[in-house]
Design brief:
By secondary structure, the chain is mainly β. The protein contains 1 helix and 19 strands.
Amino acid sequence: AYFIRSTGTKIRAHVGNGFRAPSLFERFGETVIGRTPQRIGDPTLRAEQSIGVDGGFDQRIYNDRLQFGATYFYTHLQRVIDFSFVDPLGLRANGGYFNRPGGLARGVESYVEAAPFRGTDLRASYTYTNSARFVPGAGLQREFVIPKHLFDLALDQRYRAFLFNFDLNRTGAYIAPIFENDFPFRTAVLTFKGYTKADAFLSYERALTERVVLVLFGGADNIFDQKYFENGFRAPGTVGRGGASVRF
C-alpha cells in the first residue's frame, strides 16, 4: 500500500495463494456399502491450491468527513478436492474423493462513507461478482448462491445516550440447487429472485458506576416482512429482538 499524504489517497494491492493438504480421511478413508467395506479415499490426492489478486484505492476529502473507494478482485481456485458417488476415472466402483479444477470469482467492490452531521454516520456499498464453478464435462458454469449484485445502505445516528441503527440490503437474483429428500434424490437448479431487506435497532446506554455500563436494546430484522430465500431455504419474516447487556 502507498499513501499520498498531500491528497489523502491510499493506493493498495495484494496477491496471495492458498494451500490445503488432503486430510487423512480424504486419502485413506473407507465406508461400508451393503455390508461391504469400500475405499473412498485416494492416497494420490494432490493439495488444493488457489491464487488471489486485488487492488484498489481509498480517498478521503473534506477533513475526513467523506471517504470513498473501490477494489477489483480476482480469485482462481486452481485445484480442489471433491467427492463423487461415481469415480470419473472408473477405478472405484462407488466413487470417492478426487481432484478437479476449481472455479473463478472476479468483480468490483465500491463504497462511500460520510459523516455529514455530528453523531451521524452513513455508508453505502455496492459489489459486483462474476463467479463460475467447474462442472466436469461442461466446463465453467455459474456459481451457486452468489448473486451478481449486492447493495447495502447503513445509517448510525447517535443522540446523547441513544444509538439508532438502520440497515437496508438489496440482494440480486441467484441460483441454488434443491435436493429431494427421498428416493431417487433428484436435484433441480432454481433461480431465486432478488430481495430487499431492512433492519432497525435502537439502543440506550446508562452508566451504573464509573466502569459498569448498562445497555438496553430492541429492534427488528426484516421490518417490511419481505418474503425471501437464503441459500435456497425460506427465511423468516419480521423478527423482533430485545434485551440488555452489561459492559465493564
